[in-house]
Amino acid sequence: MTENLLLEEAELEKFRQHCRARGFDLSYYSSEITRAKRQIAGHQYGSPKVIKLRKRLFGFAGVPYD
Question: Across residues 30-55, what is the average pLDDT?
Fold first, then answer.
């Protein structure tokens, strides 16, 4: 199983800047999913995704970017 790339908000911004400089746009994002970090990493999408990870009171929230 391929895992999704989980990035904290600051790391995601650096990654988005890196992609923008190379002509890729990560502005589109999907609905937030709330689960354990491991479950978000292993969540089945059509393809692996870059996910902004936020700590919540219980568990994590992941916002997938294309």
Answer: 89
